[in-house]
Amino acid sequence: MTLFSQTITDFWGESFNHETFYSDDHFHCIINPNLEDNRRVMVLTTADDKVYAVITPAIAAKLQLSKEQPLSEVIFRNKLHEAGILLHGADHIFYYTKQEKSKICSETVAEHIRQLTVQDTVVFSKFEDSASEQDLDDAYVELDHWAVFGSFAEGHLVCASSMYPWGSSKLADLGVLTLPPFRGQGHARKVVRAISQYAYGKGYEPQYRCQLDNTASVSLAKASGLTLYAQWEVISPDSPSLS
Length: 243
Description:
By secondary structure, the protein is α+β, with helices and mostly antiparallel strands. It folds into two domains: about 5-95, no CATH class; about 95-225, 3-Layer(aba) Sandwich (Aminopeptidase). It is about 30% helix and about 30% strand. It contains eight helices and eleven strands. It has helices spanning about 5-15, 55-60, 75-80, 100-105, 120-130, 135-140, 185-200, 215-225; strands at about 20-25, 25-30, 40-45, 50-55, 90-95, 115, 145-155, 155-165, 170-180, 205-210, 225-235. A hairpin with a 4-residue loop joins β3 and β4 (about 50-55). The longest helix has 15 residues, at about 185-200.
């Protein structure tokens, strides 16, 4: 039995379960003509260290891939570099396992945590004023997102998490931000689980992304009960157009 829900495996399978150009025990190269332009190159490195690269036929032609020539992850990445094709820095992708989902759906949300609405505009504005611009940019927590939850202490909003549907999928991408004086007190963990419970109730799977070097965010994901699914890289907008 797989760890993760069918929603998650189907989402990634839609892009990566296409014509296999090359495959070995470690590296798999897939050609998919249906990729959107901003995802015409993607690389997914799963938690068990298998690497799946998916590209459009145009990218395959640009890289001059040939079944008569050897291929590996190293060769593939070198070909991207030689063609001037850049990838964004990788993100960790975390999800809840089916077992953890069951726990979240039956949990009682703490009294100091609740859903935020437009009626909390003043409260949320004060929260934003107390956070640094860098933290606000990194967390991407917004009151007008699809769902927003907050944790309160000393009469103030001290931690907030927001979600929005990821494209047209049934994944809900989340961000979370705790004000510095209140970090390390469990606010973020509880808010992440509370908003995830809400997402499950609406038929969505929570998705948590963070950059590989964001150790604090990685620690929060694990503390919140999330499990690493993969590392995800996607083509950078600075890469040359093929038109």
